[in-house]
Backbone:
């Protein structure tokens, strides 16, 4: 048996995607979620990791950008891929170098629309509703050193109707994320 492919998940908030990815791979012998890293002390993602029995670690700005602390941890955990699941900081240069084309992000819009600095979570859905868009969706992409600009792996769309609110759009997006993010990760890491 080959060693399992090891995924490190990075998140900043609620952690629904981290949970869905972890549950998708839980019974698999070829893929393992080896750790969940978060950068907001009170993020609910830590609670989810605990419930899933996955090691979770908090790291602050210094650990990401001024030292190799996070990278050292990823190496100690033998992570093969880094999955950004609602991670809201720019990926540090040392991580991009250590994981070239091995960092995957999900963005809750149809990039290149509604991407870039400050465009995350509810801000995206508010902008989509304010612009009276007729559709929105998710983009899963490889991460490079610009916000939301790496190679696109996958997009899925959903309709936006005149009575949609940022909250109802968020709910549609979460359904797409649940349906596709784990599967696209699965395909990409086995290519
Ligand atoms: C998700 O909708 C994800 O697409 C988005 O944050 C949410 C995190 O939810 N990511 C971004 O906006 C990245 N720019 P979760 O913590 O419940 O998975």
Residues:
């Amino acid at each position: 048996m080959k060693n399992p492919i090891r995924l490190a998940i990075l998140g900043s908030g609620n952690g629904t995607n981290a949970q869905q990815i972890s549950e998708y791979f839980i019974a698999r012998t070829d893929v393992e979620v080896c750790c969940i890293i978060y950068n907001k002390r009170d993020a609910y993602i830590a609670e989810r990791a605990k419930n899933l029995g996955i090691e979770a670690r908090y790291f602050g700005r210094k650990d990401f950008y001024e030292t190799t602390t996070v990278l050292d941890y990823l190496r100690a955990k033998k992570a093969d891929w880094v999955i950004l699941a609602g991670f809201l900081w720019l990926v540090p240069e040392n991580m991009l170098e250590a994981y070239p084309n091995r960092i995957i992000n999900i963005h809750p819009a149809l990039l290149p629309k509604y991407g870039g600095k400050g465009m995350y979570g509810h801000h995206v859905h508010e902008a989509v509703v304010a612009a009276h868009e007729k559709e929105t969706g998710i983009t899963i992409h490889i991460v490079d050193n610009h916000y939301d600009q790496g190679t696109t792996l996958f997009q899925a769309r959903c309709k936006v109707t005149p009575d949609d609110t940022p909250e109802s759009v968020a709910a549609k997006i979460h359904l797409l994320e649940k349906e596709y993010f784990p599967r696209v990760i699965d395909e990409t890491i086995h290519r």
